[in-house]
Specification:
Length: about 675
């Protein structure tokens, strides 16, 4: 994010006067612009009446699209106003408004538009505010990447430099998470007086000798601290394990990739896990201090996996860093602050507290100790809590520095004691009314088998019942050739109604990480000519997961085709049961008619659905709920006989209309 600023810092009095003058200038320009538009009929720029809504911050690329002009022309226009910016850099609303005015456009702030919408929905918002008391909360960030690419080094550098002075040394015991403060900067808009040509020319001449720098931290920019919670866990394995328990607790992933090695197998796995969690990814291209570092090659490899750098027209933030020396880390944290601001993270600190276990162990003198990351509500000392089949009452709470605290709010990591047994990593913690309720709920949870995964057959059944419309696959094969062949075959199976989604693929045996990803994403695990690691097998058995292994590619495709076919809506075919001509209307109520008629073909059947036709046109439908012949109830009446019918319908029936009884049959559709 960037903002433009003047050379000299203005005093409060001068700043206030300047803002007032700028506001008056804008009003005058808008008046003169509207007058000139109303007085002319041509098509010059000054006559445009288009109104453009602009956000608070916008990239040069996006602004060019809004103005319907080339990026080159827009950059030239910016330079005329003393603004030097590249295609991927951002400018604020006020600077964009100046350019818009010169091009003959009227502008509106997106914030103003949002206020209008909020005003319209004020009643709904007031009702919502009574239910939820949402407050901004710190983001939770996970650092992932391939082994030895620098995850731990980066976390250590951030902790040592960003934890408050005198406190960093206080982190003597690892609790799985910690909080740091990073600068959260707000860009300050600067409007230049368009009528003052002398100032403009001076600014332009200065920019030739010394370019006006576009900075994310101008000297007089308003700033404050942003608290960030970092999960200090062993990479994506722990991340996926938490998600496997339904705990999608992270908001942003920092992917560490060594510039000397580029993309490695665990890099690819980390990307798959982050994408499955649907969280933003910021790439830290590490080890740029090494002579073998190749940042551009690393960016290309990441682009092949769908992470395209902003510099190359994508939307992935990539920052070259050296976690060892600290070079670029400040920039990485600045970009993190920007991404977090866009997420607008909120939680309700007043509801019954919930959290996730991120560490748990037995400690002499304290008993069961667990580290909890609070998600909603406020956890307080003496609260009654439940975690799966264990429960207790919080006796002691410590923050990540070891300080004893009385309460913990959303996104805060806290170490607690008081649980009866060791809590399971990734399980959810809930605060309940009292220990009695906690004990009862824990007992209810005991012995309950956890089943979060479905077999291919069960997926098919859920597909047929309409509960799911696609299924995810984790695919592992022995060679790259086999992988590409299977992926191509699966892509050919999918259509607009039915989708197979390969959320992760790779070469090699099925690992514990693959199983965790499958659990958290409710994916099917498929292997071709591969084995299953012992730890993965144990995890699969614990969650009752059936791993689908194949040696013949055609069997794999056939099985998945059969499962996917259930995704298609069945073809509905109508079969005529018989027809009747209406001879008499006995009763004509709003939702029920009693008629007399003669069966002209096949038969009328009690309970059958009917179409009501008037002069061969279908005018309505209904159901036969009573059927009589000679005043006797009948299950059916054959062709050639007269009968009385009670029909549930709102359609008006007249003498001479035709009643056609029919049934429907579902025919399963197949892919391929």
């Amino acid at each position: 994010m960037v903002a433009f600023h003047k050379k000299r810092k203005l005093s409060k009095k001068e700043s206030k006067a300047l803002k007032k003058k700028e506001a008056l200038d804008v009003i005058e320009r808008e008046k003169s612009s509207s007058n000139s538009v109303g007085a002319m009929d041509g098509t010059s720029k000054s006559q445009k009446t288009s109104t453009i809504t602009l956000p608070r911050i916008i990239t040069v690329r996006d602004l060019a699209v809004r103005f319907d002009m080339s990026v080159v022309d827009l950059i030239a226009e910016l330079m005329k106003n003393g603004i030097t910016a590249t295609i991927n850099e951002s400018i604020d609303f006020d600077s964009a408004a100046i350019i818009a005015d010169e091009l003959g456009y009227k502008v509106k702030s997106q914030t103003e538009e949002s206020r209008k919408v909020e005003k319209k929905d004020s009643k709904k918002e007031n009702l919502k505010s009574k239910i939820l008391n949402l407050k901004s909360r710190p983001p939770v960030v996970v650092v992932m990447g391939h082994v030895d690419h620098g995850k731990t080094t980066l976390l250590d550098y951030i902790r040592k430099t960003k934890v408050a002075a005198g406190e960093s040394g206080g982190i003597t015991q690892h609790i799985g998470a910690y909080q740091v403060e990073i600068a959260k900067r707000k860009t300050q808009s600067v409007k230049q007086d368009n009528k003052n040509k002398e100032e403009k020319s001076k600014s332009k001449s200065k920019s030739k000798s010394k370019k006006l720098q576009v900075k994310s931290q101008p000297p007089h920019a308003a700033s404050h601290e942003q608290i960030v919670t970092f999960l200090d866990t062993p990479g994506h394995e722990a991340f996926s394990a938490m998600r496997a328990h339904g705990a999608n607790i992270t908001d942003v992933a920092i992917l560490v990739v060594a510039a000397e090695d580029g993309v490695k197998p665990q890099t690819k796995e980390a990307i798959s896990h982050a994408k499955a969690a649907n969280i933003p990814i910021i790439v830290a291209i590490n080890k740029i201090d090494k002579s073998e570092a190749n940042v551009e090659k690393t960016k290309r490899e990441l682009g092949d996996l769908g992470l395209v750098s902003e510099e190359w027209g994508g939307d992935t933030v990539m920052v070259p860093i050296s976690a060892k020396t600290g070079k670029g880390v400040e920039k990485l944290l600045e970009m993190l602050a920007v991404v977090v601001e866009l997420e607008e993270l909120k939680a309700d600190p007043q509801i019954a507290a919930q959290g996730v276990i991120i560490e748990s162990h037995m400690q002499k003198g304290l008993g069961s100790v667990a580290t909890v990351l609070v998600q909603q509500g406020t956890i307080k000392q003496s609260d009654a809590i439940i975690v799966s089949d264990t429960f207790g009452k919080i006796k002691r709470m410590e923050d990540y520095l070891g300080n004893i605290i009385k309460e913990a709010t959303p996104s805060m990591p806290v170490k607690i004691t008081g649980l009866k047994n060791i809590a399971i990593f990734g399980e959810r913690l809930q605060v309940v009314e009292n220990e009695k309720v906690a004990r009862e709920k824990a007992q209810d949870n005991q012995g309950k088998a956890k089943r979060t995964h479905l077999s291919l057959g069960e997926i098919s059944q859920k597909i047929k019942s309409g509960q799911i419309k696609e299924f995810n696959i984790v695919l592992k094969t022995d060679t790259q050739g086999s992988l590409e062949a299977i992926k191509d075959a699966l892509s050919n199976l999918s259509n607009q109604e039915a989708v197979i989604k390969v959320i992760h693929d790779g070469i090699g045996d099925i690992s514990e990480s693959d199983i965790n990803l499958a659990i958290s994403s409710k994916a099917l695990v498929v292997g071709f000519h591969v084995n299953v690691s012992e730890s993965a097998r144990r995890l699969a058995e614990a969650h009752k997961i059936k791993i689908n292994l194949y040696d013949i590619i055609y069997n794999l495709i056939d099985d998945l085709t059969s499962g996917l076919s259930g995704l298609l809506e069945p073809e509905i075919i109508e079969e005529s049961l018989g027809k009747l001509i209406v001879l008499k209307i006995f009763k004509d109520k709003k939702e029920h008619k009693i008629i007399g008629g003669k069966v002209t073909s096949d038969k009328m059947i009690k309970g059958a659905k009917v179409k009501i036709k008037h002069e061969k046109n279908v005018i309505g439908k209904g159901t036969i709920d009573t059927l009589e012949q000679n005043k006797k109830a009948m299950p059916s009446v054959d062709e050639g006989f007269e009968c009385g019918l009670g029909i549930k319908t709102q359609t008006k029936i007249e003498e001479g209309d035709t009643i056609e009884a029919f049934t429907t049959k579902e025919i399963a559709r197949k892919i391929g």
